[in-house]
Amino acid sequence: MKKLLSLLAATGLVATSGSVAVACNKKTDDKSATTKKDLATITGDSLKLAPEANDQAAAEKAVIDQIKAKLTVTVVKTTDVVFSDFKAAESSDKAGSIVVTAAEKSTLVTGKATFALTFKAAESSSVKKLDDITPKELAPDDQTVEKAKAAATAAIVAYASGAKETTDYVFGDFKAAESSDKAGSLVVTAASDSKLLSGTVTFSLKFKAAESSSVKKLDDITPKELAPDDQTVEKAKAAATAAIVAYASGAKETTDYVFGDFKAAESSDKAGSLVVTAGSGSKLLSGKITFILKFKG
């Protein structure tokens, strides 16, 4: 009987010791499982990131990937970490930054860290050089800067679809074409932060001559002898205007013609004269004419 009791007691003691050992091991495992990783242990070059873009979303993704790589934990935004103080990188010489802090209720991480963000330059394949535009010779509808810009814009958009003035390019020096032998020019430069264009181009502007069929020579007016109501310059101009408008409908003083030297008629034997010259930008008239002014007795 004593031997049986001794055997049972020994068996119970072993079982109890085993249970204690298992329990102790379980507590050790639980403690290991709940140990948080300190974000502050990420240091040195590990804090330098190269996001796929210069926006905050790309920066946050790069940070989460780095935490996983360095601390072997997969954190979730808001649940485990919160981001703040984001500053986008502006250039290769001006890096950005973002701060990551462990969420208060996170079971994975603690502490905080500040990551540096390197600038992500636009892919070279998507940026086109303005000077590669061909042809560089443009033929605007006239010699004005507005028509030159319109022609340049059409050439630029055909070369780089989606390009916009100010955002992607800006206009510079303009020089109007003066004749078929003296072309004009227009300089266009890529905007400093354009993602489509770079560099500068100087367009050559061809001279646009007025349509020959619509331009009339003043000297072809007939008759050239006028009979004003009196010898004043006002009446002489009125008579000349009537003759010019009858010859070229729609012609206007200053725009299409300008009056020059005037000499009043003195007698029936001594006629006067009035010179009229076509306006430099007229699309109706060219040359000049000298009207003869009859004396009004």
UniProtKB/TrEMBL annotation:
It comes from the Bacteria. Residues 1-23 form the signal peptide. It holds the Pfam family Spiralin. Keywords: Signal. GO terms for cellular component: membrane. This is Spiralin. It comes from Spiroplasma helicoides.
